[in-house]
Structure formats: structure tokens, C-alpha cells
Amino acid sequence: MSIAEPRAAAATKRSEEYLWTLNFGPQHPATHTTLRLVLQLEGERVVDAMPEMGYLHSGFEKIGEHLTFNQYVTVTDRMNYISPMANNVAWHHAVETLLGIQLTPRCKVIRTIIAELARISDHLLCNGAVGLDTGAFTFFLYGFYQREVIYDIFETLCGARFTNSYTRVGGVSHDFTALVIEKIRSFLRTFPKTLDDMERLLTRNRIFVDRTKGVGVLSREEAIARGATGPVARASGVTRDLRKDEPYLAYADYDFRVCCAAAGDCYARYLVRMQEMRESLRIVEQALENLPAGPVNVGIDQRTALPAKTQVYSTIEGTISHFELAMSNRGFEVPCAESYAAIEAPNGELGFYVVGDGSDRAYRARCRPPSVLHFALFPYLIRGHTLSDVVAVLGSLNIIAAELDR
Amino acid sequence: MDETSAGAMSAAAATPAHHGVAERFGGTRQPPFRGQERVDIPADRVGEAFCFLRDDGYDLLVDVTCVDYLEYRGAKHRYGLVYLLAATADNRRLTVRVFLDDPAPTVASAAPVWPAANWLEREVWDMFGIRFEGHPDLRRLLLPEVFTAHPLRKDYPLQGRGERHNFPILTRDDG
Predict the structure, then answer these.
(1) A136: distance to nearest CA of chain B, Å?
(2) Is B16 a residue whose pLDDT tops 60?
(3) pTM score of the predicted model
């Protein structure tokens, strides 16, 4: 399907006055979150789109300059609330890069597992929402049920279903228990069947394919030039995945593939996400079966993570370390330096540029949100398509307004 | 995708990622921190330097952000713009910093070189009040146009200056 022709037509007719303006959002069921599009329409055809954002702006980066490294993790939960665990991992990955902390092997693997579970739950919602917006309600419910299972795992793990705040500097808040491992194992057994069902429901569904194939095409060159990352870029043929290219945590140890497509349309983005869930399952499986024993938090010599209670009560080093970390005028040592560290979040490259000034608070906590750059792509992708394609394109980009606005 | 890229960071550190961009444009090369290559570029040569870096293979602009060094110990300049670049072909990364000062912090826009800079620079303008010359559409990104302050500056208080309480209240009768 060629889209070059309507695009060219759109450019010449921009000045004409019979275009009409449609306000899409900020409160519209298909925007899913609070964002606004001002669409210039010629009949059903979108001539131009002006995205507007900021409705959920809450100054997260300013708050990041006033909360300690451990406190701010609660705010990162609220950025991409579809997969808060991935944000937690990204934030403390950046902080630990600045501090130069080497995690324990067990902690690395645990974080890898939860980051991959977060990816599965994010992709389930994103693809489910694309299905929902294009009329496939059953598909959405299949996906949402499995998200509940992942929530249950997280609840068993740390007590919170949605805003987990799971990581800590140098470790995590709760170690894996036998029950958590059992629940993840059971998820690994049951989920592939649901994934098969979902693919049977939608992947060759005539209506869905017609609604998404050839819609919102992003070429490889444009994807790179416009800063697309993650599944959006990979669906356009950019073979960039930080898990392979700059392996962090324990990713170098596992066998998995980077899922790419060449078409660059909404359908390709859907396929990439479906395939990535299977790869995530493989990673979780390998990680869970090779979970190293040993401590989950870094030792008291690093002076960042609270020591275990048995250590506090039975050794003098543990007691001192606990006191020093808990006292507001001690905390841990932070270099006067700045660094950037990113992870491959479900949505793309999620990084934090953290500036340390010696205190236990960041001097600057910049979040590099993938959604902003993907939302900037939107006018480019939608020009020349029809109004009904707006929801397909918007859904396939997986715009999360809370991450957009922070 | 090759499996051997585990040492991407160390390989990048071994080969000079900046390819002389610091010397060529009168900047300085900072010692790498945690394996991250960094160069500082003077503000008036930014446009040329960006074209050079793009042609050098840095095709992906990861992020544009800013740090207000007002209260930072030992800082010589007020603002530090941070451009995070990446080369998708060979996995290099480079951090480019540009320092600016009051009263009129202005720098050439990176948007003609990397279209990704468009919204990122709008956010920096919004939050820090740094003007980007040659930017196609320099409007505020997050805050409303009637907002006058730049809230991520260090002299802006955490709880605001009462803007929120003084917004005009529109009722249905006004519309």
C-alpha cells in the first residue's frame, strides 16, 4: 500500500480553508491517557496533527532533586505506570552507575527477571490496547488477565501490585522466596498457551491486519534520525537492543534473540511486541533456573544497602552500618560527577542522567523518556491516513502520558 | 546482532570515540567517567561540531538535557547542556557538553542535524529558558504558554511561586 501519494496531496492542500479541525483529547477513551491532538482534517483524511502534552506534568525531575536516591524510586513508579518495575530497575541502574556499585550476582538475576516480567506486562497492555482500539475486545481481555497474574507475582514478591518501588541502591527490597519462584514457574508454564491463543485471535485476523498493515510506516532512516528506540525502532529494522549491545545486569549470560521487522508499520510493531514476549519468557526461564545463591544486597563494606537484621543484631559492623545509613547526616558517599545509564525498557531506551554533588540526593535527575520521542513521531506517521487510523498509530507507539509529562 | 558486544563499553574506550572533535572545535576532552566518553564544546562552534559528529557516525541523538550549576560546588558556568549521542552502527556513545551563561543563554539548535532534537530542545527551553537558534518551533513543551518561569532552574522553588493558585478560573458562563 502506498502512502506517498496522499501525503503529497496533503502538503499542497494545507493552505486551503475547507479543512476542519478536530480536537482529539485530552479526555478521550482512545488516548488511554491524558494527551491532546489537534487534527486538521480533509473529510476523513488527516492533513496534519499537532500533539499537545503537559496535562499530567507533575515536576518529577524537580522532585528528584529533593528526594534521596532511595526515596525517588517511588516517583519512578509513576512514570511509566504500565511497567513500574522496569522504571525502578532503570533508576537504580543509573544511580549505581554513578556510585560505581557492583551488584551481587543474585541481585542482577533477580532484577533481570522482574524487568522481563515488566516487559511482558507492558507489551500485553500495549498490544491489547491496539486490539481494543481496532475492535478486538476479546484479545484485550486475554492480555489483561495475564497482567493480573504478573501483578500477583509482584504482590507476593514485595507486597505492592502496581507501584512496586522494588529496587534499592545496591539491592532490592525483598529477596525471592520459594513461593515467588513457584508462581513465576507456574506463569512460565501457562503463559505460552495464552500467547498462542492471542496470536490465533489477532495475528491473521482480517480486520486487524487491514487496519494496521501499511499504516503509520516509519522507515529505518527516519526512525534513527527521529530518535525512536525499542520496539518502535526495531519494527523499522533498527537492530538496536541495549540488552545485546550494552549488556547490563545479567543479560550477557542468556540466550535470546533481538526481534526485528522491516515493514515499520503498526502491524510490524504489533508482531515485534508479540515476539519479544516469547523471548522474555526464555530469558526469565533461563534466569530462574540458574538463580545464584548468596546475598541479594551488596555487603556492608559498600555502605549503601541496609544490612540484614541478623547481621545488625549479632555483629558490631552491622549495627554501625545500619545506624550510619539510617542517620540523615551520614548516608552514603556520592561522587561529584555526572553519568548516564540506560536500560532497554519495554518502550525503548529508558535512561537517567544523574548528577551527584556529594549528598545523598541527586543534583539533577534527568529522565530520558522514550515516549516523548515516539509521540513527536506521531504527526509524521499519521499524515495522509484516515481519522480511524489515529487510534491504531497512537496505540502502536504505546504513548504513556505520565512518562511523557513526568 | 553479534554476541561479542559484551565488551562494547571497553572497546569504545579503547578507540577514541570523539575522533578529535574536541581539538578540532576548540573544546576539551574530559577524562572518561565510568567508561563514558565526554567532550566539552564551546557554545559558538556547536553547529559545526554536530555536523561533524553526525558524519562521524553518531546518527542517534539519545537525549538533550541541561543542568543548572547555580549551587554546584566549583562550577564555572551556570548552565551545562548535555547531548547524549550514540552510533547505531558500532555502538559508540559520546556525551557532549556545552556550557552557557546568563543573561541570555543561547545556542545553535541541533534540530537541523538530528530531527529528534526538536521536542527535546523545546523541553529544555521550557524548563531552563535556554534559547535554541534555528529551532523550527521553539514553544514550551510541557507548561502552558502563559507560564513565565523556567522551573528546573535552581533558583525556582520546589513548591512554585503561586502560579497554580493564580491561574484564571474559567466558568461555563465565560465560554
Answers:
(1) 33
(2) no
(3) 0.87
